[in-house]
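Usage example:
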Amino acid sequence: MTTATMPTTDVTIERRTAIDSFESPDFLLLDDLLTEEQKLIRYSVREFVKKEISPIIEDCCQKAYFPYDIVRKFGEVGAFGPTIPTEYGGGGLDYNSYGLIMQEIERGDSGMRSTVSVQSSLVMYPIYKFGSELQRQKYLPKLASGEWLGCFGLTEPDHGSNPSGMTTNFKDMGDYYLLNGAKMWISNSPKADVAVVWAKSEEGRIHGLIVERGMEGFSTPETHNKWSLRASCTGELVFDNVKVPKENLLPGKSGLGAPMMCLDSARFGIAWGAIGAAMDCYDSARRYAMERIQFDKPIASFQLIQKKLAEMLTEITKAQLLVMRIGDLMDQGRATTPMISMAKRNNVQIALEIAREARQIHGGMGITGEYPIMRHMMNLESVVTYEGTHDIHLLILGADITGIPAFK
Amino acid sequence: MKILVCITHVPDTTTKISFTPDGKEFNAAGVTFIIGPYDDFALARAIELKEAQGGTVTALNVGLVETEPTLRKALAIGADDAIRINVNPTDAWQVAQEIAAVCKAEQYDLILMGRESIDHNGGQVHGMVGELLGIPSVAPVMRLDVVGGLATVSKEIEGGKEVIEVNLPLVAGCQEPIAEWKIPNMRGIMGARTKPLKVVEPNVTATSTTVQQFSLPPAKGACKMIAADNVAELVDLLRNEAKVL
Ligand SMILES: Cc1cc2nc3c(=O)[nH]c(=O)nc-3n(C[C@H](O)[C@H](O)[C@H](O)COP(=O)(O)OP(=O)(O)OC[C@H]3O[C@@H](n4cnc5c(N)ncnc54)[C@H](O)[C@@H]3O)c2cc1C
Ligand SMILES: Cc1cc2nc3c(=O)[nH]c(=O)nc-3n(C[C@H](O)[C@H](O)[C@H](O)COP(=O)(O)OP(=O)(O)OC[C@H]3O[C@@H](n4cnc5c(N)ncnc54)[C@H](O)[C@@H]3O)c2cc1C
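Running the assembly step on the lines above writes:
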């Protein structure tokens, strides 16, 4: 494999000196339900975010710059593949530990969390779950350490909510597979060393293939001008007669169920992550409301502001309960796709609403990059769309309730 | 090299301090505890030295069972094992005697501490331990290099800095920029599960301190603004109200 050479860039990123004094609310004393180890994990990732993400993130987003160095740092702190067994370089942790890591990283920025979600749940997870022993050993340790960056190609220009209609396909040429097609909206793609790509066989069955940078006919053009996840890089995957070695097909599972299993794991992480973004907005709004004086009083003394803060805290608390329960069920293998849909849909929605209310509380100040609110709000517009749109999750729940799928 | 790092289990620096109604104890309810910030620097330097030169790092705390998560954190950061001396200490002399007892048995080459705790800010334990063991103690140490049995130490002094060479074994009270704090990583946290944490019973039970009363410092008063040209009023207020002239 030829490791991607990073284009040199003349963007200079400034580190802020202002101290990030984030504190997370814990209204129902849910910390009592966490183990000492889980609390230490959250603490460590929070410290990591304060040191490595908060000082640069505003500038990265303003300049639409993906701080590639962070990939190695995520690897060092152990953010990649927390639930993958340690023998492959993963963390060997439970699902709520994974969730806490996502919460803390998204508290920093949803784009940074996207980088980690994709690597952990959409690249390492399928290689671990459906890969051969050889594939696991070849890819997982390097993805865990951050030496390699991965991406996940499911969405196509004409097939987003309906991935089963995909047209990317591969033909068995005897010695290799010949891959053709294109994927769109792929997080990490411009800098990825490895892509887990979902494509149809000649029989029309969906399989996962590991495509490596440097394979002839494979390119990853970047998608520019996003108003959201600006510190995360997004792009296309273009396959023009790419010869993929046969040993790069994931042998363990085929059919749409395979990528959907990955999405369950990623969506669970997103449901936790959204709480992080919500907490950051709430924490910032609460502080601002206590300090900002209007009509000779802190604005926190007005009932309308208190209503906003009270509702934010209520929704954050409900969201926490949802994911903590689902995390336990995931460890027991009892969580279902509709449960995860409920949590992803609810938690991202409340985070988006909290960001909007927090923006109001900050008045004009909330419009600038001095505060994280607009950045979170814009980021969350992607989060509410990717990994199953808000409405698609509603339909998954609807199908579960009635037994009648309304999206087909 | 055999290194001991003494760590305190102290309230997070952003904690709002309060006391029990009788004013005799710190109210620990809802408080997050951390490794003392100076001790964290000492630990980070200990791990760097171990990584560069080989050896072991032991983390030690004098305290009750609730300090164990803090010791586990030290293990997650990279200490090889931990010792907890099972007593709730009430003064620096008691802590120093307990630490010295362990050191006598274990013969460490380096005994690293923070320059001071951040709960009682005594800045005394390292000096006392050095004295009890009859070995040099230096603080505050901002750089520490070891070659063979000789340590080169740079420390802050009034109006400057002093560089000295000291033979091991040595007690050092550390502060920044001796090393960069280490954030535990997930592998370290998992590994800490199985590292040994030994609980030993205290040697000395007598303590010479009893708490009469804790109280908070008076709240900061409001700021009084005086017109820039009104020197007479300023002098009057400083003399008669603030009573500083
Ligand atoms: C920043 C970003 C990063 C992304 N990263 C990745 C990635 O790494 N990998 C990847 O594979 N994909 C990725 N995506 C793609 C994302 O998953 C898709 O955008 C998403 O699935 C929606 O697909 P679409 O954009 O084609 O919208 P469409 O499917 O065209 O949907 C448009 C609208 O129609 C609604 N709709 C569609 N079908 C129905 C129906 N049956 N009933 C009711 N309403 C319906 C949707 O809810 C939505 O509101 C990313 C997207 C973004 C924005
Ligand atoms: C009035 C009073 C009440 C106290 N009440 C309590 C209490 O309720 N609960 C409680 O746990 N402690 C209590 N302590 C003990 C306190 O937490 C300190 O451990 C002890 O007083 C030494 O503090 P110092 O400020 O003198 O340490 P310093 O001399 O400032 O500490 C220097 C270095 O010595 C080492 N060190 C200090 N203390 C310890 C320790 N305990 N274990 C390991 N290394 C150490 C650290 O490396 C530290 O950076 C009390 C102390 C006093 C004076």
